[in-house]
């Protein structure tokens, strides 16, 4: 299936990857892979089953045997709708910790590739353009200032009914950025040839327009 078009959108937490990737996918009629959700699902599964967090072998097993499925905007873990539960900051923070373990990443590799189906895929995460789909036709690296990202995440959490404290969020975001960027396995970085897009002063729709116009340009050459 390597001829099926892929657009990768990578970037730090709360840069708008998910929102932009979903809208681009919807516009093009493409499938959508939220790779971060797979790490969040693994984290939630580990928390629910009390897997010891220092047992790398057990963590990799949890990733390998992840019983999940995606249906529209809903995400299921063993038939339970966990779309909201996986968005908790505690789950995101644990996801970022276990995502640093190479055997966990390896366990989720094949599942991510399987999302590449006709007529195309938009995939968002940290290593979509660098590791999972290195030959993607269009690669985007989304960024925004840490303040803009903390504000976006704050609003999202409150809208979902979670409580949030801005100071804690800024600290979490900075720590997560550092962990995702400094790990040795698939660190967060712009892929070679990626288009950089700083959305600090942009709406999500403006970012979507930019990605769509880059995509249109790849089809003209
Ligand atoms: O929504 P947010 O950007 O905060 O996080 P996410 O995309 O849901 O991903 C949660 C965590 O999973 C990140 O902090 C990363 O450490 C990890 N992740 C990763 O390592 N590789 C990916 N392709 C996607 C997420
Ligand atoms: O996936 P990621 O963690 O990178 O971000 P997200 O879950 O898509 O969250 C970004 C939030 O910021 C959403 O509530 C968007 O509506 C909002 N936003 C955006 O995505 N892009 C902008 N340029 C401005 C706001």
Q: Would you kindly provide a written description of the structure presented here, covering whatever features stand out?
A:
The two termini are 21 Å apart. The protein has helices at 17-28, 35-48, 56-64, 89-98, 102-107, 109-113, 128-132, 146-159, 166-182, 204-220, and strands at residues 6-10, 31-34, 68-71, 74-77, 80-81, 121-125, 138-143, 195-198. α4 packs parallel to α9. A five-stranded parallel β-sheet has the order 2-6-1-7-8. It is globular, with a radius of gyration of 17 Å. The chain is built from ten helices and eight strands. 49% of the residues lie in helices and 15% in strands. With 221 residues, the chain is an alpha/beta fold. β3 and β4 (74-77) form a beta hairpin. The model has no long low-confidence stretch (mean pLDDT 95). Bound molecules: cytidine-5'-diphosphate (2 copies). Residues 13-14, 35-36, 39-40, 92, 95-96, 99, 125-127, 176, 180 line the site of one cytidine-5'-diphosphate (CDP).
Provide a short characterization of the protein structure.
Keywords: ATP-binding, Cytoplasm, Kinase, Nucleotide-binding, Transferase. By secondary structure, the protein is an alpha/beta fold. It has ten helices and eight strands.
């Amino acid at each position: 299936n390597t001829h099926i078009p892929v657009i990768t959108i990578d970037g730090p937490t709360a840069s708008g990857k998910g929102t932009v990737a979903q809208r681009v996918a919807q516009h093009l009629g493409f499938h959508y892979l939220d790779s971060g959700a797979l790490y969040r699902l693994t984290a939630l599964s580990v928390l629910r089953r009390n897997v010891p967090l220092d047992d790398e072998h057990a963590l990799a097993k949890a990733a390998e045997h992840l019983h999940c499925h995606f249906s529209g905007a809903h995400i299921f873990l063993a038939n339970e709708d966990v779309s909201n539960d996986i968005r908790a900051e505690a789950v995101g923070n644990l996801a970022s910790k276990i995502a640093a373990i190479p055997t966990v990443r390896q366990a989720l590799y094949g599942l991510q590739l399987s999302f590449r189906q006709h007529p195309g895929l938009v995939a968002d995460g940290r290593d979509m353009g660098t590791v999972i789909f290195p030959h993607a036709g269009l690669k985007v690296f989304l960024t925004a200032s840490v303040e803009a990202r903390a504000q976006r995440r704050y609003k999202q959490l409150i809208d979902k009914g979670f409580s949030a404290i801005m100071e804690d969020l800024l600290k979490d975001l900075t720590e997560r950025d550092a962990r995702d960027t400094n790990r040795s396995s698939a660190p967060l970085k712009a892929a070679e040839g990626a288009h950089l897009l700083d959305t600090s002063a942009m709406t999500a729709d403006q970012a979507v327009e930019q990605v769509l116009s880059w995509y249109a340009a790849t089809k003209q050459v």
